[in-house]
């Protein structure tokens, strides 16, 4: 064996034993190591060093949008599609806002946004988006609102038929029965008028694609005599305001008022009560709701 190699092996064997028994002097740390240790100790012991706060770490996260926005659900090209609080919109921005809307119909909606009302039964969003895409494109190209509305309504109805809604109420080729959309009798007034909560989706798919929020027998020929319908898509808290509108409008039309004038007057009353909810009960009582 080479003598240098043997010596090296011996040192590697003996040195650890000598160090373990304390028979060799300890090797002092270099100044660089000492400085590093002192720096670490300083960081841990310095009371002036502030911990990171969670809100600072999240400073770049965008805040959730305020009213009336609820949630962004889709993006179609440069159009952002939002679910909004319809009750807020009708109370503070435009009382005529219905299930959905876009800028060319409602000034309160930004140009590159579609708004869909938050539904109690959120099962019609795709129908509404299809409608808005057609309506917005045609109006952007210069078509009048009425013409664009009709074309968009036809496109929406085609999608509803594909979904099979019409077939559910017309099996065997029979005419659709309005009572099939009844969900719950809310109340029968002393006058005999019955207030029904109805399946709004089926009403729009089978009877009238433009039905929204509510209606009565003096406006819609498919609603039986002495009936007022309230859309089940409306949230519970908003239904009394729509009910007030429909009862007041129906009362005025029964006295000979034209629909347009009766609707405008009812919208004013509804808007007033939305801003003065303490007057809602007495207003409903005047319309026979006790």
Features:
290 residues, 2 domains, 11 helices, 4-stranded mixed sheet, Arc Repressor Mutant, subunit A, disordered N terminus, alpha/beta
Description:
The chain has 290 residues and is of the alpha/beta class. The protein has eleven helices and eight strands. The chain has two domains: 95 residues, Orthogonal Bundle (Arc Repressor Mutant, subunit A), CATH 1.10.10; 115 residues, no CATH class. The strands form two sheets. A four-stranded mixed β-sheet has the order 1-2-4-3. Strands 5-6-8-7 form a four-stranded mixed β-sheet.
Q: How many structural domains are formed by the residues?
A: 2
Counting H and I runs of at least 4 residues, what is the number of helices? 11
Q: Strand arrangement, largest sheet? A: 1-2-4-3
Largest sheet: 4 strands, mixed
Radius of gyration: 36 Å
Task: Give the H and E element order.
Answer: HHHEEHEEHHHEEHEEHHH
The overall pLDDT average reads: 83
* Gross morphology: globular
| Class inferred from helices and paired strands | alpha/beta
Topology (SSEs and partners):
Elements: H1 3-20, H2 31-45, H3 54-57, E1 69-76, E2 79-84, H4 86-92, E3 100-102, E4 113-117, H5 125-140, H6 145-162, H7 165-169, E5 182-188, E6 194-198, H8 200-207, E7 214-216, E8 227-231, H9 239-254, H10 259-275, H11 280-286
Parallel strand pairs: 2-4, 6-8
Antiparallel strand pairs: 1-2, 3-4, 5-6, 7-8
Helix pairs in contact: 5-6, 9-10
């Amino acid at each position: 064996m080479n003598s240098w190699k043997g010596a090296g092996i011996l040192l590697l064997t003996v040195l650890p034993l000598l160090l373990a028994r304390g028979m060799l002097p300890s090797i002092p740390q270099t100044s660089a190591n000492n400085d590093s240790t002192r720096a670490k100790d300083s960081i841990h012991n310095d009371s002036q060093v502030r911990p990171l706060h969670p809100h600072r770490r999240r400073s770049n996260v965008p805040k959730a949008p305020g009213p009336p926005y609820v949630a962004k659900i889709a993006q179609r090209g440069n159009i952002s599609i939002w679910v909004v609080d319809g009750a807020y919109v009708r109370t503070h921005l435009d009382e005529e806002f219905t299930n959905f809307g876009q800028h060319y119909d409602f000034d309160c909606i930004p140009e590159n946004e579609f708004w869909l009302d938050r539904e109690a039964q959120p099962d019609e969003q795709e129908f509404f988006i299809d409608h808005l895409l057609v309506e917005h494109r045609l109006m952007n190209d210069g078509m009048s609102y009425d013409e664009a509305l009709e074309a968009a309504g036809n496109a929406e109805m085609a999608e509803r038929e594909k979904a099979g809604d019409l077939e559910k109420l017309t099996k065997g080729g029979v005419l659709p029965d309005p009572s099939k959309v009844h969900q719950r009798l809310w109340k029968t007034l002393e006058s005999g008028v019955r207030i029904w909560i109805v399946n709004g989706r089926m009403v729009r798919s089978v009877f009238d694609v433009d039905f929204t929020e509510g209606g009565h027998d003096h406006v819609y020929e498919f609603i039986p005599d002495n009936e007022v319908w309230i859309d089940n898509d409306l949230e519970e808290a908003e239904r009394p305001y729509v009910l007030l509108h429909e009862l007041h409008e129906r009362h005025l039309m029964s006295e000979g008022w034209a629909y347009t004038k009766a609707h405008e007057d009812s919208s004013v009353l509804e808007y007033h009560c939305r801003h003065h909810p303490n007057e809602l009960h007495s207003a409903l009582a005047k319309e026979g709701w006790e």
